Amino acid sequence: MGGFKAAFLNEAVKMLKKKKLIAAAILSILAVVIGQVAVTVIKHGLGLRVVGSTEFPLVVLSIFAYTILPLFATFVAIDMFSGEFSSNTMKITLTRPVTRLGVFSAKVLNLAAFIMGNLLFVMVLSLLAGFLFNMTSVSFIGIVRVVLSYIATFLPIFVFSLLVVLLSNMLRGGLAVFFLAILAFLALNVLGIVFSGYSSFFITSMFDWYTLWISETINAFKILRQLLIMSGCGIMLFTAGYYLFDRKDI
Asked: N or C: which end of the chain has fewer CB within 10 A?
């Protein structure tokens, strides 16, 4: 356990030093600011009330979950695996007194922490923006719906990032993994639209999974079904990714 904790902290320190985290934070702030400016312009320019204080974070999430978050989760996953293999720094990581499973799990757990941290960061920013510009529409139920939505979005994004982890252990070049991940993202979205009846089996179609949690009529069966599908996909992708990671020659 001590070796895993050290590996986790080591990966956390490496991740915090990456400039991509700063870029992700800046783009997240810009997304919230631009969204709020657009809402304010429509409200004062056209006299229309587009969203309330607790509805604005959900509008931001609907865009953020399909653009900035999966993009930077892909970057972080590639850096953790393909980046270290290409720069030969993985040798140093694997010389530590911890198993390969421990190293792999520590990397994946840090990736999960990045995704959740980014979601919570955007949630707080969008809530603050909503409160500042539309304080009259604040409600406790609205805040609960926002928190639940952002937490629920974590799982589908994390499962997609496990697909990137798998690709990063299949290919050595980070650029090749990036383009393949983008193609996979687009292909899954197209397949989810074309085969709408089977969209639950395409992970990107579940990036809006949070809508099932906050709808007026909650479909518990559909939520459970998609939870099981995502859990199954996540377990298979984690196992396949670790298998390739464990067999790699350093």
From this structure: N
